[in-house]
Design a protein that fits this description.
Blueprint (H helix, E strand, L loop, with lengths): L2 H8 L5 E4 L9 H9 L7 E8 L4 E7 L3 E2 L1 H8 L4 E3 L2 H8 L16 E5 L8 E7 L2 E5 L1 H8 L2 E3 L2 E2 L1
Parallel strand pairs: 3-6, 6-9
Antiparallel strand pairs: 1-8, 2-3, 2-5, 4-10, 7-8
């Protein structure tokens, strides 16, 4: 298992694990997950790491069907500027490989922001910590176990 799944099991949080055969040539890990699991893409969320001007790493969880609005994230995090984090820094901080970074069970507790569109859904899918492995859970459960907050940080 992965640290993300271990965390949910230990907390007895309601979740379901879904796996699929990952294709290393896939252009988008999130859209691949939606397609291979037969999911509505708007319910699949990607985990992105961002770096503020203060060198603070932040976690953004947004639908795979859109993109991250860096200005909106900076506003939500109360920082002046946000840029995509260096992949090596993201891997070091989370303990996960890019393409399989889960918002759950990261090595360091980072401030986490979940796009508010998640709140309208009964459950969402996020990486379970490995390419080809997704975890389905209620948005509120994700927020609780990441100490995350909801904010309008995604762009359609």
């Amino acid at each position: 298992m992965t640290p993300a799944i271990d965390l949910l099991k230990k907390a007895k949080a309601e979740h379901r694990i879904h796996s699929y055969e990952h294709d290393p040539k896939s252009a988008s890990y999130g859209l691949e997950a939606a397609e291979k699991l037969g999911l509505e893409p708007a319910r699949v969320f990607k985990t992105l790491l961002v770096c503020s001007e203060k060198n603070e790493l932040l976690v953004a969880v947004v639908p795979v069907t859109g993109s991250l609005d860096l200005k909106a994230l900076a506003h939500a995090a109360n920082v002046k500027k946000a840029d995509m984090a260096d992949p090596a820094a993201a891997q070091r901080a989370t303990g996960y490989l890019v393409g399989g970074i889960s918002p759950l069970g990261q090595k360091k507790r980072l401030r986490t922001f979940i796009d508010s569109s998640a709140q309208a859904l009964p459950s969402i899918f996020v990486s379970a910590g490995r390419r080809g492995l997704e975890v389905e859970l209620a948005p509120e459960v994700l927020a609780e176990h990441t100490a995350g907050s909801f904010a309008s940080i995604g762009r359609g």
